[in-house]
Amino acid sequence: xxxxxDPGIPLPIYATAGAAGxxxxxxxxxxKSIILSPRARKLIPTGLRMEIPVGxxxxxxxxxxxxxxxxxxxVNAPGTIDSDYRxxxxxxxxxxxxxxxxxxxxxxxxxxxxxPVTTVDFALGELDDTAxxxxxxxxxxxxx
Length: 144
Known about the structure:
By secondary structure, the chain is mainly beta. The protein has one helix spanning 64-70; strands at 22-25, 34-36, 41-48, 56-61, 72-74, 79-81, 89-95, 101-103, 108-116.
């Protein structure tokens, strides 16, 4: 946790046995609420710092209930936390709704998924041919 975090706020937790994402809560240093106006975005602190094993990342994703009920999403969904990052974790929320939204201390604001990472070596060279070729957007859909 960050030095100014409230230790009373729970660590990320899986809400159900089948949940892929663990809920992440707002951990506001002043324990007050934050108003997110329509079309506004703010970095919401979680109070978390983590040590992610090499070969993994943590993805921070929006919560579907906040999106459906209030239009609250993330600007950079999913957000990636790399295994070599040790700083504070924040969530960039945006209000796509039409009314102010209040983020309270301890509110579940996002979910985190731990995922394996595969890296590759990038190189210049010739590409193999495929049936699709260079067909772009909509090229695999049905035509009428």
